[in-house]
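Example record

The entry below shows one chain as it appears in the dataset: sequence first, then C-alpha cells.
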Amino acid sequence: MRAQLRRPGQPDTARVMALIGLSTFYISTDLDSARRYSGLALALARRRRFGRGEVQALNNLAATYYYSSDYPAAQRTFEAELRVAQRMHDLRNLGHAYLGLGNVATALQNDSLARTYFTQAQRAYAACRPRNVRGELLVLHNLANGYLADDASARQLRQARALVKQGLALLPQPDSPLLTKLQLQLGTIQMLEHQPDSATATWLRALRVSHAQADFQTEGEAWLHLADLAQRERQPQLALDRVRQATTLFRRLGDDASVAQGLDMTAALLATLHRPEAYDTLRRYTALRDTLLNRERLDAVATAQARFQQTEQQARIRALEQERRIAELEESQRTVRTRVLLGGVGVGALLLTGAGIGAYRRRQQRREAALRNQLAADLHDDVGTLLSQIALQTDLLQEGLAPAHEQPALWAGVADNSRMAVRQLNDVVWNLDAHNDTVPNLLDRLRDYSHEVLVPAGRDVRFVVDAPSENPSLPAPVRRHLYFIYKEALHNILKYAPVPATVTVSLHRQGHLLVLEIVNDGPVLRTSATPGRSSGHGLRNIRTRAQAMGGNATAAALPTGGFAVRVEVPVG
C-alpha cells in the first residue's frame, strides 16, 4: 500500500483508498498511525469530493478516537460520517455510523440511547442490497450484551435470548464463523438459566469453529467460559488446563485485560491445588493489574469528562430551543398587533392611539428582550462557569478518581465554588431588581460585598459617605456598571495589595455627578499584571464601563503608597 502511494501518476481516489487501507491495518496495533493515515485520507477525499473515500475515512478516524477513549471526538466524527452517508444514500456506512454512535453511548452508560442507535443500525444493514448480515449480527450481539449481567432478571435473559436467536436464524449453517460470538452469548444465557450441560455444548461448538478459523479472540473467550464452568463444578485441574489455553491465546493477541483475568483465575486454582507456583502467578497478576488500573483511571477520567460535556451540550440545546419558542411567540404577538392596528386605519384618532400603543409596546418588547439577554449573559458568565466546575469536580469525586489525600481539598473547592455561585446569583438578581435603583440601595450592596470578600481575606474596610438629603434614584444601567466597577476594583486589591492594607470606600454627590472612590493604603505589588499599568484588562474594563455611562474613571498610585480608583458619572 505504501508502494501504491509512491507510484507516479497514481489517481487521487486510489491514493485515498490506499491511505484508508493503511489506517485499517494499524487500528489494532498503532492508533496514532491509524489516526494519521485516516486524517490524510479524509483531507484528500474532501479536496477531490470523493464521497466513498470520505465516509470510509471518517469511519476509521472515529474508530481510532473510540479505541483511545476520546468519546466526544468519536461521537462528533461518527455524526459526520452519518451526515455524509445520508447524503450519499450509503446504507452500509449509515449502519456503521449508527453502530459507532451506539458503542459511544454504551461507553457513556446511556443504555436507552445506545439501544436506539443499534436499532437504527440494524435497519440500515437489513435494507442493504445484498443484505449486510455481518453488520446485523454485530448489532444483535451488542444489543444482547446490554441485557446480560450476573444479576440479570429472568425478563432480561428472555430479551437477550430472543436477540441471540434472531441472529442465529440469519444464517442457515450452524457452524458459520459469523455466529461464534452469538454462540458465546447463548452459552452465557444458558449458564445464567442454570443449564450447565447446554452451556458446555454451546461453548464447545463455538470453540471448535473459532479454532478452525484461527479466531484467537473467540477461541480464548470460549476456553475462559469453559474454565469458569469447571471451577464452579469443583474440577480445579480441568479448569486450570482450560484457563492456561485461554491465557496463551490472549498473550498472542496482546489482550492484557484478558491475560490479567486468566492469571487471576490461574492463581486461585493453583492455590486450591496447593501448588507452589500460585504465589508467583499472583504476583504477575498484581503487576499486570496495576498497569491496567492506571489505564482504567485515564479512561474513567475521559468518560467522566465526555459525560459532562454531553450534559452541557444538551443543556445548551434546551436553552436554544427555549429561545426559539420565545421568538416564535413574540412573532405571533407582533402579527396579531399588526392586524389590530391595520383594522383602525379608517379612524384617525384610533390610528394615532394605536400607533402610540404599538410604539410603547415595541419599546417594552425591546426592554424585555434586553433584560432577557442581560439575564442570560450574566447567568452564563457569572454562574455558568462555576456550576460547570462544580459538576466536573463532583463527577470526578463520584467516579473515585482522586487519591484519598486529595479528596478533602476537592470537596473544599466544591464548597467554595458553591458559595461563590450563590453570591454571583444574588448579584444577578440584585442587578435586575428595579427596587434597587436608588443610591442607598447601591451603598448597602457595596457594604455587603466588601464584607463578603475583604473581611474574610484579612483586609480592613471603612466607608465614607455623604448623608443624602433625599432618596435619589439611579438608572438601572448606572447602578449595574458602578457595582461591576466596584467588584473589579476589590478584585485588584485582593490580588495586588498586601493583607495589612486598609480599604476606604467613599460615595458622594458633586453637583450632577455621583463619585465613587476606592482607595487602599498599602503598597502595590509590582508585577507584570500591576494595576497601575495602563495595559491592565481590569482598569480597561473600568474605564470602558465609566464611558458607557457618560462619565470617566481614573486610577493612579498614591504618593504615600497604595492605589486609588475614582469614578465620576452623571446621575441627573
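Notes for this example: The chain has a mean pLDDT of 78. The chain has three domains: 2-228, 297-432, 436-572.
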